[in-house]
Amino acid sequence: MKRLYILFLLMVPATTPLYSQILKTFKENYDEGNVTYQYYENRETSEQIKHGVFSYTKYLKADAGTYSEVIRGHFKNGNRDGLWSFSIKRIDYPNSGGTYTTEITTSTQPFKNGIPDGLWKINSFWKVRDKVFWNYHYIWGKFDPVHVESASLTFVNGVATGTFIFNNPKSTILHLNKNGFIVGNYIFPGVYNNSSLKY
Q1: pLDDT reported for residue 16
Q2: What φ, ψ does residue 5 adopt, rounded to 5°?
Q3: Which of 186 and 92 is assigned the larger pLDDT?
Q4: Hey, what long-range contacts does 156-159 have (CB within 8 A, 24 or more apart)?
Q5: Residue 185's pLDDT is what?
Q6: Distance between CA atoms of 172 and 105, rounded to whole angstroms?
Q7: I need a labelling partner for 128 at 20 to 30 A (CA). Which of 3, 17, 39, 109 fits?
Q8: Which residues make Cβ contacts (< 8 Å) with residue 115, sequence separation at least 6?
C-alpha cells in the first residue's frame, strides 16, 4: 500500500502541469480580421496549448457593401471541444465579375476532444445583383432568384453516421451505417436519364 502511495505521488507532477497552468489570452490580427484565444504554456516544451474560449471576427467594407465573418468555439487542452459556430454575412459585397452578393451562411459543429461528435448543420442563402448605368448615374439592378442550401449530418466519435440531408433546393437523403458507409438504394437524376445505384 505504501509503495502504491509513493508511486502515485511520483506520478502527480507529471500529470498535473496541464491543468495547473494559468490561462493567458492571445490576440492578433489575422487574415484582415482579429483572433482571440486562451492558452496555457506546457512547462516542459514551452508550447502554447489552446485552452478556453476562441473567437475570430472579420469586418470589411467595399463600395456600398459589407462583409462579416465570425467563428466562436472552445478548446480543451489543444483540441476543439463543445459547440463551434460559424457565420458569414455579406450585404451587396462586390464580386470579381462586377456583381454584388447578399448572403447569410451559418453553421454549427459540435466536437469532443478534437473529434466531430454530434449533429453538424449548415444553412445558406444568397442573391446576386448588379449596378446599371442609367441617366448618367448607377442604379441597382434587380436581384437574381434567391439560392437556398442546407445540409445536416451526424457524427459519432468522428464517424459520419445516420441520415445525411442536403437541400438544393430539392432534398437528397443518404443513409450511412455505423461505420460511415452509404447503404440503401438511390436514384440520382442526370441530364438525359436517371442513374440507379445500390450500396
Answers
A1: 41
A2: -65, -45
A3: 92
A4: 156/117, 157/112, 157/115, 157/117, 158/115, 158/116, 158/117
A5: 86
A6: 20
A7: 109
A8: 79, 155, 157, 158
